[in-house]
Design a protein that fits this description.
mainly beta
Length: 204
């Protein structure tokens, strides 16, 4: 069981402590439906997942979806190590096969109103100009052109990513769209030795 799953289980257990009457309680008071729903929501924090082709030796993908007041925050942390870029601008980054990095849905992520992409470690040994796209299809594969999909650019880097660089979304990610990282410029086929990114989206 992962640390996130242990944390989620602990929170839900605290919410569902029972009183002498057998009713779910919080701090000795009967839990409301809203509180129980919130506890259940916590179990969906790792609901986003990449395509099977977005994997490699050293590749890391972690996600969290959490409620913050009346908002929903989605966070995706990606270490590109072990994935590959190609020689062609706007080709999909991955390893082999379907290489999206998760699907945005209204039920999980809410209606996205904006987002940011932040470089936590500069990419090396692959194309360093990396863009973020959303597409209707979840079938986009490594080395395929994102332009062959019904796509929308969310972040266009316009140059190499450097440590601490932050780029806002050009438009919000629409519901039922799959996210893809692509080469933002022509380059060489290369397996990434580094490159860590944080993608944050806010929904309502």
């Amino acid at each position: 069981m992962s640390r996130q799953e242990v944390k989620t289980q602990r929170v839900i257990t605290e919410y569902l402590e029972t009183s002498n009457s057998g009713m779910p309680t919080i701090g000795g008071l009967n839990a409301t439906v809203a509180e129980l729903n919130y506890a259940a929501d916590l179990s969906a924090q790792d609901a986003m997942a990449p395509g099977a082709g977005f994997a490699g030796t050293g590749t890391i993908y972690e996600s969290a979806v959490e409620r913050v007041g009346g908002m929903i925050k989605t966070t995706i942390l990606i270490d590109l190590t072990g994935t590959k870029s190609t020689t062609t601008d706007l080709d999909i980054i991955g390893l082999s096969g379907v290489s999206h990095i998760g699907q945005v849905t209204a039920a999980i992520n809410g209606t996205i109103v904006g987002g940011f992409m932040t470089c936590l470690e500069a990419p090396t040994t692959g194309v360093t100009d990396i863009d973020l796209y959303a597409a209707t299809e979840g079938t986009g594969a490594y080395d395929g052109a994102v332009g062959d999909l019904a796509e929308t650019a969310l972040v266009t880097a316009g140059g190499a990513w450097t440590l601490g660089l932050v780029k806002p979304f050009l438009v919000p990610a629409a519901a039922n769209k799959y996210l893809y990282l692509t080469c933002g410029a022509a380059g060489v086929v290369g397996t990434y030795a580094s490159g860590v990114f944080l993608i944050e989206m806010w929904g309502v």
